[in-house]
Structures are given as structure tokens and as C-alpha cells.
Automatic annotation (TrEMBL):
GO molecular function: catalytic activity; cobalamin binding; iron-sulfur cluster binding; metal ion binding
Cofactor(s) essential for the protein: [4Fe-4S] cluster
Keywords on record: Iron, Iron-sulfur, Metal-binding, S-adenosyl-L-methionine
Protein name: B12-binding domain-containing protein
Gene Ontology cellular component annotations, sorted alphabetically: cytosol
Record keyword Metal-binding present: yes
SUPFAM superfamilies, per database record: Radical SAM enzymes
PANTHER family for the chain: ANAEROBIC MAGNESIUM-PROTOPORPHYRIN IX MONOMETHYL ESTER CYCLASE-RELATED, BLL1977 PROTEIN
């Protein structure tokens, strides 16, 4: 049982400006998770650097209790600059940095005065700890086990803006989904394992979403946002042949024919799998 918050907390979640547009699914999962834990006790706001000017973000953040940034390495410096500006107008605000870059080099991030705490690994449980009073500089994220019951809060991250931009740029309404946590591979060129288990040598197994629940979400989003196409954000989508076949068979059974794509690894693929994905 999660203890109640003493007062309504205002939280601002920020995805810094980036040269590529991906939905902030990580922040959307965190938003959905903490809203479920503290119904009616949180005022959540989301800002995305590709759409929101710094002055808009600063105006929101100056009255926030906590400001959280999700960062890859290319956006860490812009995020830090924004955090410094927020601290100048609101010194008491707590700033939390998470994502791939802080998970890889948490101690380096904490050397910056504008960074109060760093979340290492998956963010849901770690963010819950912070809301409940955890003040350690580095907060380790426990593996999130509620994948089949919490969909990312797409309204919070204003998913429609990214979809509209895709339509303007390439003529199709596209969004992404996550079907699995953790990739079993340890490719030297990929940062996936940095955020999902190598810090402090944690054992973090692959966790897959129930294919039927996953399709429920995809169908709902497709109707709500009038999608032309969808993709999976998983580093490796076909980690389980059984999962792939169940998903594809369920998709066929529902007569859900929206075009899609996913990252697959050749060593896990076979003819039957590829034919099922194509069907």
C-alpha cells in the first residue's frame, strides 16, 4: 500500500529538444504509474523541447515541486542549461535526471549543481520512491512488473503533436509502442543495457507484455489518433518466437491490418515468423 501524499504535488516532466522525434514513452509510463498510485494528488505537466519554447517550460516549472528530465547523451547539455535556468528562478525546486545518459554516468551528472538526483535504470519505481521522500543522490530503479496493466499516458505527453508533425513531414500518421523491457543481447554499439540492468550488476530479465493487452492498446490508439502506421520502439522485438507468433495470430484474428514495423534480430528469425509478421 502506497502512503498518501500530504499535499497535491506539481510535477513537470520534460523531454529536451532533440534532432529526432520520438514519443516520450518512458515519461508517459511514469506519468500513468504515479497517477494510478496517487489519484487526485498530482498535478502533472509535460513539455517537449521540439514543440515548447524554453520560456513556456520556465513559466510552468517556476511553480513546480519537482522537475524531471529524460535524457540521452545528445540532449544532456541542453537539458542541463534548462535546469540551471529553472534553478535561478526557483532555487527550491528538486530536479531529477533519468534516461540513458544519467544511467550510464550518474556520478558525472551529479557533479552539476543543477542536478539534485539521478534515476538509474527503469523510472517507475524509482520515481515513486522519490515522491515518497527518497533523497539519495542516486536512486536505483527496480524492474517494473506492471507492464500488462498500465498503458503509457499519451494524453499527458500530448502524443497528438508528434503524430501531426509526422503527417506534415512524411504524409503519414505514425506512433510507437513498447512490447518488451530489456534486450537479452549485449551489442557493443547499443545503450539498451545501460538503462536496463548493468549498473551495480543488477540482474534484470526480459519482460514481455501480454500480446492481447498490447493489441488492445494499439487498436485504441489507432482509433483515437487515426493512425496510418505504427512501429515498435523495442531494441529487439523478436526476442521470443512464441510472443511474435501469438501477437501476429491475434492481429490476424482481429482483422487488424494497419501497416507496421519492428526491429528484429536475424538470429531469432525464421521463415514462419517472417511470414506471420507479413500476413
Amino acid at each position: 500500500v502506497v502512503q498518501a501524499l500530504e499535499k497535491i504535488m506539481k510535477i513537470t516532466l520534460i523531454q529536451p529538444q532533440y534532432f529526432n522525434i520520438w514519443e516520450a514513452l518512458g515519461l508517459a509510463y511514469i506519468g500513468a504509474f504515479i497517477k494510478k498510485k496517487f489519484p487526485g494528488k498530482l498535478e502533472l505537466n509535460f513539455h517537449q523541447g521540439n514543440f515548447d519554447e524554453d520560456r513556456t517550460i520556465l513559466r510552468e516549472a517556476k511553480t513546480s515541486d519537482l522537475v524531471a528530465f529524460s535524457c540521452t547523451s545528445p540532449v544532456f547539455r541542453p537539458a542541463l542549461k534548462l535546469a540551471q535556468a529553472i534553478k535561478e528562478i526557483h532555487p527550491e525546486v528538486r530536479t531529477v535526471f533519468g534516461g540513458f545518459h544519467p544511467s550510464a554516468v550518474p556520478k558525472d551528472c551529479l557533479e552539476e549543481e543543477a542536478v539534485d538526483q539521478v534515476v538509474v535504470g527503469e523510472g517507475e519505481e524509482a520515481f515513486l520512491k522519490i515522491l515518497l521522500g527518497e533523497d539519495a543522490p542516486i536512486v536505483q530503479g527496480d524492474r517494473f512488473s506492471d507492464l500488462n496493466h498500465i498503458f503509457p499516458d499519451r494524453n499527458l505527453i500530448q502524443n497528438i503533436r508528434t503524430i501531426d508533425l509526422c503527417e506534415r513531414q512524411i504524409g503519414k500518421r505514425i506512433t510507437s509502442f513498447q512490447s518488451v523491457r530489456v534486450c537479452p543481447l549485449r551489442c557493443s554499439f547499443c545503450a539498451e543495457r545501460v538503462v536496463t540492468g548493468v549498473y551495480q550488476k543488477q540482474n534484470n530479465p526480459v519482460r514481455e507484455r501480454n500480446p492481447e493487452h498490447l493489441l488492445d492498446e494499439i487498436e485504441w490508439v489507432a482509433r483515437e489518433y487515426r493512425l496510418d502506421y505504427f512501429k515498435f520502439a523495442d531494441a529487439t522485438w523478436n526476442t521470443s518466437i512464441e510472443k511474435v507468433m501469438v501477437f501476429c495470430e491475434e492481429k490476424i484474428k482481429r482483422n487488424f491490418n494497419l501497416p507496421w514495423d519492428a526491429n528484429v534480430h536475424a538470429s531469432f528469425a525464421d521463415k514462419n515468423m517472417l511470414e506471420a509478421m507479413k500476413a
